[in-house]
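Journal club prep, shared notes

We agreed each person brings one worked example of a sequence with its structure written out as tokens. Mine is Extracellular solute-binding protein. I'm keeping it raw so we can talk through how to read the token line rather than staring at a rendered picture. Sequence first:
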Amino acid sequence: MKARKAWAAAAAVAALGTLGLTACSGGSGDADDGGKVTMTMWHNSTTGDGKQYWDDAAAAFHKENPDVTIKVTSIQNEDMDGKLQTAVNSGDMPDIFMARGGAKLADIVSAGKVKDLSGKIDPDVKKSFGDAPFSAFTVDGKQYGMPSAVLPGGMFYSQDLFEQAGITENPTTIDDLGEAVAKLKAAGISPIALGAKDAWPAAHWYYFFALRSCGQDVIENLATEADFSDECWLTAAENLDDFAQIEPFNKGFLTTSAQQGANSSAGLVANHKAAMELMGAWDVGVIASLTPDQKPLPDLNWFPFPEVDGGDGEPGAMMGGVDGYSCSNDSPAACEEFLNFVSSKEWQEKYAVAFQTIPANQDAVGAVTDPSLKPLMEAYQEAPYVSLWLDTALGQNVGNALNTSVVEMLAGQGSPEKLIETVSAAAARG
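Then the structure, token by token:
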């Protein structure tokens, strides 16, 4: 896979809104008189191999650097953004924290809480990553994060359930997807798992319809101006509303979580209770953690989000994100040293295996063995452009308004017009 994709709408400007965050500084990287350093780290893997990976990485770094100890804390994914905002407000930042880039990171940068890593990233590491993954963590021309995984999205599905329903070819258009839904229903199979309780999985559906409806320039402009006046945004909402009318999602999708337990949307796919899920590349590892034997789902596969007639989006364009890690502004030099350490080929290969995902280090992609990630990697390589998740590009306030508005529309409590009105009002407030 070539690291040549620019993450559209990722290079945010530091002038973006600050969520009303204070600019007070907090304690970080405590050092005693003997020169020993203790750092704190927040990540979002709470179970299994992913959690063990970070424990092992911290221990290995300590072994090579006996004066540095890293206290690792795992935080539920859906709680991470809120806890980070609280940490920024209180001035008590972790030294190392998970970052998703875009305006979400720019908001924290503008509050003066993130260390500029420009010139602090090992040149050999940066060469092995290529420029593309770093673009999501670039704010006003400066580097504020180290990428760890490239996470484009699409449709993960069970080959066994497709075969059971008589689906012999992957859907390539939204009409094809509708036909697949009808076949799955006729076979008594829940077609698409959706964890709308967490809002963002439901909003992913709107993001992808927008990707098909809006041109690249319209989506890229979100990085500097959250403008939803183009007709394509309403068209995307209408297309999603029309698709929802065929009732493609699992029963109770509005109260289904995304990744927590066997009854989550990922759990429904993991246990063959639903055939598909629209999700990012991390889904492979999440699904594996929720199968009965906690091993990868043998029949899991992937296809791109279908094309939609009439839109300005270029065929093959993808939506996704880049996970990574940043250092708080007051963190010691050991912070960037640790990020360089885990970005080596060895530790990125371990990352790919532990998380069943695509590492950002291009020298480590040979460690990706899951069959469902192979077509995803090929599609990523061939995509004309890859846009950053809209809520990440927009930042927490506007992004959350968008996400919740999508859920309200799917719940029958809103409309395409109300969705655009709500997100436009949130953007106007800044």
